[in-house]
Amino acid sequence: KYMQTIPVKGEDEVAQLGISIQKLGEQLQYFEDSRNEFLAAVSHELRTPLTYIKGYSDVLKKGMANSDEEKEEYLSIINKEAQRLSIMINDLFEMSKLQVGKFELDKRPVNLNELINKTATNLRPEVVKKGLKITLELEDGLPKTKVDKERMEQVFYNLLENAVKYSTEGEITIRSSTKKDLVVVEICDTGEGIPKPELSRIWDRFYRVERSRGRKTGGTGLGLYVVKQIIEAHGGQIQVNSKLNEGTVFTIYLKTSKERVE
Ligand code: ADP
After folding, report:
1. For atom 1 of ligand 1, which residue has the closest CA?
2. ipTM score of the complex?
């Protein structure tokens, strides 16, 4: 009887190992699949603006534009698409830096209100163009946080750009406040919102909510991935709350800096 139990246990372990190997295989397959999907998505995303640039510059080069207005129009398309390409390449570059661990933070005590103000000013033309309203509710005397200024600026830029991109009307509010030893920043919009089942996936590389995909606004699905990596590298946290067709709130928590540097 005793002898019988040993082989049974052994078989169990072998079976267990078999299952683990299979799981590992599935995981590797998953990574392989997502890498292939990634490359396909990148090539597709990069090709679209290039097609426009090539097409319209060909037309101009062959002198096929009928009027000065037409020339202007084609040039502005070329310009816009080149701009889009440049944003995408930046996103990709940022992401590859995050991935190979070349992710050094140059942390200094910073007043986040200043960064928020700067980002809001940079995006103001887009906000005005879409007829949106932007409100800043920034706490006076907000304690400084020790952050990498450029990275944190990118965080605010990505979040604010999304708020603009995924809103057709209404208001965008950026709020800063303190909660114990944390600085809290909220970026709220009254835009299209994110469907609940997709909420947990928006942080994934290249993930775009179903109805954003075919859209002309473009985008790589990298923005929020990069945002999360940066916040977490700072020891902070980011959360999202969203209601379909009502709006979205992103909340960032960062530790206040103990250093008193002016
Ligand atoms: P993208 O380049 O597509 O904007 P992101 O990683 O920045 O990529 O965002 C991932 C997806 O999350 C977007 O495709 C969009 O569907 C959704 N999303 C992000 N921010 C918002 C927002 N403020 N309102 C509604 N949907 C959003």
Report:
1. 221
2. 0.98
The angle subtended at Cα 175 by Cα 179 and Cα 143, nearest 5°, is 45
Q: How far apart are CA 169 and CA 173, in angstroms?
A: 13
Q: Rounded to the nearest 5°, which phi and psi values hold at 224?
A: -75, -30
DSSP code of residue 139: P
Q: 77: which residues sit within 8 A by CB, 6+ positions away? A: 52, 56
pLDDT tens track for 45-89: 788 889 999 999 999 999 988 899 999 999 999 998 888 888 778
200 CA to centre of ligand 1 in angstroms = 12
**Cβ–ligand 1 contact at 167 (below 6 Å):** no
By CB neighbour count within 10 A (0-12 exposed, 13-18 middle, 19+ buried), where does 252 fall?
buried
